[in-house]
Every structure is written in structure tokens, then in C-alpha cells.
Design brief:
about 15% helix; alpha+beta; nine-stranded antiparallel β-sheet; ten-stranded mixed β-sheet
Length: about 625
Amino acid sequence: MPSYPYRTTREDLRVPLPDGTELFARLWRPVTEEPVPVVLEYSTGRLTDWTAIEDARRHPWFAGHGHAALRVDARGHGNSGGLPPTASSADLTADGAALARWLADRPWCNGRIGLLGTGAAGALALRIAAHAPGTVRTVVTVCPDGPHRLGGAVLAADGHTRSTARLADAARPPDPQYVGDDWRRLWLARLDALEPPLADWLAAPPDPAPAAAVPTLAAAGWSDPSAATVLALAGQSTADTPVRAVLGPWPHGLPDELLPEALRWYDHWLRDIDTGALATPALRSWLATRWAADDPWPSPTVHQLPYGLDGQLSTAGTASEDRWVHVRSPQHTGLNAGAHLPLGRPADQPPDQREEDGRSVCFDSRPLPEPLELHGAPALTVRPHPDSGPALIAARLCDVAPDGTSTLLSRGFHTLPAAPDTPFDLTLALTPVGATVPPGHRLRLALSSAYWPWLWPDADPTGFAVDPSRSTLTLPVRLPAADAPAGPEAPSFRSPTLPLPPPLHFTEPLTARPERVTVHDIGRREWRTELSPATDGTRTHPDGLVRAEQTVTAYRVLTATPLSAQARTDRTVRLERPAIGWDTAVHTRTELRCDGTHLLAHTSLRAEEAGNVVFSREWHHRIPRDEA
């Protein structure tokens, strides 16, 4: 254990909720007679296996620096009591607020609570803070989850995969080592109450934009889908509710490099230590080769530069007598999109976009005479043909090198409505970008009418048409003179010295699958993609728990038949304690296909004990493709 200002202790406990449900928690505390604040991480991830290794590294570090750190299993998950929440049952937000108030009343707590969350837990932390602003003093949110639709189009990438994983994770049994002989009764009750979350996710009205109710530190990687949320939070900063944001070169998740910044934030708001946290700028961004600082955000040093699609950008092959540019893409356009949720593996990043560009209509600039630094979210305004709707517009912004290499910078999507009575303009918000396009390179805007397997295809493959003379790409361009240092000193974002993780023995599968494989069946005109996550394999934990996982996600589509699109995820999780003969397994599957108006979902769940089926259920849902 590294040397920290405080020695630490660890204990497992159960926290009562107002309705009598008890949540399983693990608490790390500094050894001191003085009351201390609490860093609370409340998540549906299981703390005794799924997050155990990272918890054992990070939370003792917070405790060693003067903060109690509590990691809690959500209601109906892990070793907590109660049933998993559904759309019509108890809300995790209310549970989190009650949990924060309970902690504030502990005699060893100074009454101040800070929340920590990543992904879904990061979005949950923002909601909890809004429900308990007097108790929750601050939030650190990393990669907070976003919507399940993009520009009105239904997300295919990750949607059914995350639903399958959530179902499997909630279906895993409580561990008898922590709950005793009652584990089977709790497990069967949990299984009987489960519902796949996908239908609720897509049927719910769009969530309002995340808001900061208390002082907030928000962070993500540029390629993460939450980058736009982090920028939006940075723009909400006020004197009463300050927000500081960081966008770095990280995959999805909480990077170790950000922990010292989180500690500085917590020390300021929870321990009244002048750490200079508020002296930092509203936004610190990694711009490929250096850190940049902007205060306020949006920054006055970032100008909006318009590129007309019939001027600075132009396309080839359009008949001179036709003012409309027609876009009709094959249904496998988008296969080189990369991962929607990048986890840091090589296949997560989108490869050279030349194949995608060939399936799109491209508008290119002339070679740039000088570097062009992009910093923020581009926007595309188009004038669609009145007869174009309904259709999907997918837009990609690329950096094209002199040798033809096409590097993806940003993308955005929008579903055109049915044909209106009068012409109208439509604006697509593209994903944020922090990059420099070198001199001699060209900008490329590529438009396509499909983006599979990120988005479900439209029923009509005829595409759309736009009027370039009334269409403009607007780029956020950072002025060269804006290279001020990031705050009083340049940020280091170096990893701290964390405790060594508990020893974990990992056994890879004997027949490990590639991360991503795409097969083109020329005779059938079919494209198939199969993905396999890095979590596959068997892990033996120090306490004797053996956890084995296997997940396969597959997509298929016929080149010219949009309603042929199908997606499927199979997930198996096996938990064993050989010393006591405990052996359980959970198998989940989600299959999705579509018609012109609905997604058709088939979900199955099977649970086994010692190889015998103890629970089995199937669900069939018709989910409207249009937004609720």
C-alpha cells in the first residue's frame, strides 16, 4: 500500500432505504477522529466482482486523502435487496438521494456528500444531485450516458447489446458469501421481476439535456458519445453553480489521470481546502498535440466559419441543369464507423474512410493553405428536396490527406420528416471535434442515406436530395492566437500512485474471437459483422469467486434491402464458488429486426443452477421507430 496522508480501513455494510430495502455497500474510511466527507459511487455494476478490482484501486486512494469512499450496489443488483427497477417501479434516483441523506447523518461524516459516476452512473449522479442539492455538494461525472436515438433515428449500435448486458447483469444471483443461504430465494424473486430495458429506453420521451444542479466536474474523451454532453455542461457554468469540463484523448471510462483533478475538486467543495479548483478554466481540451484552455465556454476565440456546399465545398458529377444533389447509399454504408462506445481497443477507432466515401456523395474543399484547428461541434444546414422525406441524412466530416487517406473527424444524423407543404431548412448537429487539419489537406463532407450498423435503416432505400446553394457546413475554428496556457499552470493529468489491485487470475478463451470481423457474401449481396468484447474469458477472484463471460454481437444487412437489417447479441455469465459447490449461469439473448414502422425485439433469459434450468422466459416487443 503506498504512503498516503491517512491510514485507511475497509468494511462491508448494509444501508437501509426508507421503504426498508437494504443496499449492500463497501466503505473505505480514513483513520481519523474528525468527521470526513463522503465520495459516493452508486451503480448497477456489482461491487464484489464486476467493479471489484477498480474499486480496490481508486476508493482506498480517496480514503487515504481524507475522504470516506462508499461504493454501493443499486436496488435489485449484486448483493443488495429489493427488485430491479423498471419503468413503473422504484426510481434509482430517489434511492440515491435517500442514500446521500443517510450518509450525511452518520456521526463520522461531516454532512457533505460528493457523487462519482461513470457512464450510466455518471448520468445518474447528475439526477441524484438535482434531487438532493442540500446534501450533495458536488458531482464528478465521467462519460455520462446519452440518448438511445441520434437525430431522431434509432440507435442500432450498442442499444440491444447494452440491453442484453443489463438484463444479464441484473439476472446474476446474489453471492452466498455475502447474503448467506437466502441467496436462492432472492435470486428467484429478482428473476421473476426482470424486464428487458430496451423497450422502455426507446418508448420513453427524450430526456432533457443533463443539467448541473451543484458544482460539477465533467470529463470524457473526444471520441466518446458523451463529449457533446460535457461541452453542454461546460456552457452551463455560473458563479453559483460552477462547472469545469475536460475533454481528453481517452476511451470510455474514468482514466487514472483524472483522479488527482477529481480529488482537487472534492477537497475544495467537501473539505474547504483552497486547491485552486475554481481557478481552472471552464474547459480544458486535448487538441492532438497540446492542451488548450477556454474560459468561458463557448469561447470567444472559437469562430464559426461557414463553408457553402456550392462554394468552398463542391461535389463532382452533378448535372449542370439539376440544382439538386441526389444521395442514395447502399445499406452497408457505415460498416467502417468504428465503435459507438470506444473502449480503447484497436478496432474501436474508425479506419480509413475511403470505402465509406465511395458509398456517399462527397463535397470537397481545395487544399488548405494553412493549418485549420477545429474545436467544438460543427453544424450542417441543408435544404432537402420537398419529396425527400422520410429519410435518414448521415453526414461525416473528414480530413483528406494528399495521398487520399480519409480520416473521420465528426459526424451527425437527422431523420427527415414526411414531405412538407413548403421548403424548409434542416440543421444537423455534428459530434464535437478537437483536431488540426494540416496545410495541403482537404476537408470533405460526405453525405449518405444509410449508416449501418450504427442506425436502423429507413424502409425506403431511395434516399434524399439537397440543394447545395442553400446548404452550409459551419466549422468551429480556433484562432491561432488562442494558445494561452490552461489556467495558472499547464495541466499535467498524470496518473497518481494507486494501491496495487487484488490479484486476479485471467484465463483467455482457447478460441478467442477477433474484436471485429466483417464478411461480404457476394452471391447473397449480404454484409455480416461480428463483434466480441475484451471482457470474454474466465477470472478467478482472490476470495475464490470464478467469473466467466462470453458475449457475441452480430449484424447483417442486404446491400439493397433496408428491411433485411438484423442485429443479435448473446451473453453468458457464469459464477462459481468451487469451495462450496455453488455454480450458476445466466444466458441472455436479444434479436432485433425491423419493418417500416417498428423494431421487432425478441429477448430471452435462461438461468441455471448446477446445470439445471431454474428460470426461463421470453419477451416480444414492437417498438415504434418514431420518437414518442
